[in-house]
From TrEMBL:
It comes from the Bacteria. Keywords: Hydrolase. Residues 50-122 form the Thioesterase domain. Coiled coil: none annotated. It holds the Pfam family 4HBT. This is PaaI family thioesterase.
């Protein structure tokens, strides 16, 4: 059973049957913000040149933006999704997705995402519009534990 909202979001991901979810993890959440990593490989994620298939970055962006929406207690479905690739990525790379909710409406939400490679270089930019399906109460849990050695980590 989850003891933080970060663990709660990872437990929800574990229930997802989409194959690449097994290689991803939610690493940070706070209201309107989510971060996620994805460990790629050179067989399931790549095209014939060994570069990540285009669907990988946009899929990660969609997932991390949807999670950012859910941090505000709303279950959403993607209406519109677009992305721009800035740099190619080789298989085996760990990607880091960072998303923020830009518009938190009653029926629609807009979020943006940035995907980075292991060197911290921007490789993909995305924006999505999401339809609010329903309000979902989050459990009464802290977002994460404060580390005693570093009280600035909340």
């Amino acid at each position: 059973m989850a003891t933080t909202l970060l663990e709660y979001f990872n437990e929800l991901r574990a229930q997802n049957q989409f194959s690449w979810v097994k290689d991803s993890e939610v690493t940070a959440v706070e209201p309107g913000h989510a971060e996620m990593t994805l460990q790629t490989n050179d067989t399931e994620y790549c095209n014939f040149r060994g570069d990540l298939h285009g669907a990988v970055c946009i899929g990660l962006a969609d997932s991390v933006m949807g999670t950012a929406c859910f941090t505000l207690g709303k279950s959403v479905s993607t209406i519109d999704l677009n992305g721009n690739y800035v740099k190619s990525v080789k298989g085996g790379t760990v990607l880091r997705g960072v998303a923020n909710v830009e518009h938190n409406g009653k029926t629609t939400m807009v979020a943006t995402a940035r995907i980075y490679n292991e060197l911290g270089e921007l490789v993909h930019l995305a924006r999505g519009t999401f339809f609010v399906l329903e309000e979902k109460s989050l459990p009464e849990l802290p977002w994460r534990f404060i580390e005693e050695d570093n009280p600035d980590l909340v």
